Amino acid sequence: MRVAPPPHAPLPQGEGEHAPSSPTPCGRGPGGGGATRRAILQTTLLSLPFIARAQTAPRVIVIGGGFGGATAARFLRRADPHIDVVLLEPNATFIACPFSNEVIIGERDIAAQRFTYQGVTAAGVRVMPAAATAIDPTRRSVTFSGNQLNYDRLILSPGIDIAWGALPGYDEAAAERMPHAWKAGEQTLLLRRQLEAMPDGGVVVISAPANPYRCPPGPYERASLIAHYLKTHKPRSKVILLDAKDIFSKQKLFQAAWQSLYPGLLEWVSLSDGGKVTRVDPATNTFETDFDSHKADVANVIPPQRAGAIAAVAGVADRTGWCPIDPATFESKLQPGIHVIGDAAIAGAMPKSAFAANAQAKVCAESVAQLLAGSTPAEPRLINTCYSLVAPGNAISVAGVYRPVNGQLTDIAGAGGVSPLDAPAGQRTQEAAYADAWFKTITAETFG
Amino acid sequence: MRAGGVVVLAVMVGAAAPPPGASSCSGCHGGVSPVPVLAGRKAADIIAAMDAFRTGTRQATVMDRIAKGFTPDETAAIAGWWAEQK
Questions:
Q1: For position B71, which CATH number holds?
Q2: 3-state class (DSSP) for residue A256
Q3: Which residues does chain A have within 8 Å of residue B24's beta carbon, measured at their own beta carbons?
């Protein structure tokens, strides 16, 4: 028999301070409004019939309201409306990363990236404007804003954190001078302002990290779109992409596009050619590599990353900083009862993408509903599709189909792959239209 | 009683569960043009389209690459489930 969870009256709050370690899904906006949020939270907690529900309904807590977490919360309610689903997300607004590279070059308004949680609430999810600060996997409880709440299953979708200090010289202060813009929001707008302010003839330097990181083709899409911006507005300028890798996602397609669209404007420096950045200096806007140093007019550091901090707090991150999971249920291999989805998870061949997070969330939600109901989830199949813009209205794609093999999500042989290299221009235009439709569809499915 | 509730839930969840692969489709196929909707479409039509994508007889951007990841049986299960959705 299951032991009934204790009553969930709010615990006495010290000064109710949030610990700095909080889930940081993509697009975590500025904080603030703590006192008001806390007041709302208290009211919400007190006004809901926790105790009555706790006796009969299983509870799933979801941490992180991005493409993974918001989807999981909504689909749990859809899979079984009896489940009490609580979503912990400190930000009232989510700012989406896909298409944020178009925001950087002024082709898109950041308002198009913003989503609220009204549709998640409307699906019957109890959205709590709070960050989880502690997780007890043994007692199955989550602490947030001085409250403690028990769960039957916990789903973590914390996205990424920047691994501050992993690249010497790059800390939070440095990011104000050399933006990463790898979580959409203020950083995106900062990079946009810097590009706009740069005089013609300037040099934009982007550094790309080693694998794994959020959005594998993202640095190359960004370099492409910045090259487009320079070609259009500041044609005597140049973009240099310093890379810690020799091979990357959609490589032949990107390189073909660069040759045809941006000759002499975009220079990619591979690992073998000395592209790995070993240190940055925000005082001089300089990137140092083993044999060279690159002074930038606009410096965009895409830094090393790891799972959002709450993953380490929960004990589900391994020494790599990411979270090993069972590929059928996304349950942590380190902590039973906790599932990890999205960028934070080690999902084998699946990339860290919004599409993947959403697809994983749907499989995980269904698995969790079945496990709570005492049944065994079927072996899943998952799909990923990612579009990249090589210029506005000009897109390429990669797709994959995955299944669990020997405990890892593995590419199904013969399926997947990238757009054909020799595709007619019409197909690139068509893929851009599909990319646009995809963003509308997936954000509607995620946020309602 | 809780034990009885669990049995009922298992039946409910089992009946509604999408077959392997089906839940990924709605990442793109959600009703935004030009991507066609799958919910409520005839299973035979979905199967025919997937067959054509798999064999390369229908022009595609990504669906040729995705269709090859599913056997005819898996495709039929996915198509049947989508046909039932609203």
A1: 1.10.760.10
A2: helix
A3: 359, 362, 381-383
Chain A residues with CB under 8 Å of B10 CB are 370, 373-375
Taking an 8 Å cut-off on Cβ atoms, the answer to whether A441 and B5 are in contact is no
In this structure, the number of other CB atoms found within 10 A of the CB of residue B49 comes to 19
CB A238 within 8 A of CB A265: yes
Q: How many Cβ pairs within 8 Å bridge chains A and B?
A: 135
B26: confidence class by pLDDT, cuts 50, 70, 90:
very high
Helix ranges restricted to H, A151-217: 174-177, 186-197
Check B66 against A355: CB less than 8 A apart. Answer: no
CATH superfamily of A172-302: FAD/NAD(P)-binding domain (3.50.50.60)
Does the structural domain A34-162+306-379 have CATH classification 3.50.50.60?
yes
State the pLDDT at residue A44.
52
**Residue contact B27–A441, C-beta within 8 A:** yes
Cα gap A370→A223, rounded to integer Å: 44
Listed residue (A406, A405, A389) closest to A397, CA to CA:
A389
The answer to whether the Cα torsion of A77, A79, A84, A90 is positive or negative is: negative
pTM of the shown model: 0.89
Please answer whether residues B31 and A440 qualify as being in contact, where contact means their C-beta atoms are separated by less than 8 angstroms. no
pLDDT tier at A36, thresholds 50, 70, 90: low
- Min distance B86 CA to chain A CA atoms (Å): 13
Complex-level ipTM: 0.87
CATH 3.50.50.60 domain range(s) in chain A: 34-162+306-379, 172-302
Are the CB atoms for A83 and A57 separated by under 8 Å?
A: yes
Integer Cα distance of A150 and A132 in angstroms: 12
Smallest Cβ distance to A362: which of B23, B28, B35? Answer: B23
Closest Cα to residue A87, out of A47, A122, A139, A51? A122
B56 interfaces chain A, CB cutoff of 8 Å: no
Is B58 in the A-facing interface, judged by CB distances under 8 Å? no
Q: Is B26's CB within 8 Å of A355's CB?
A: no
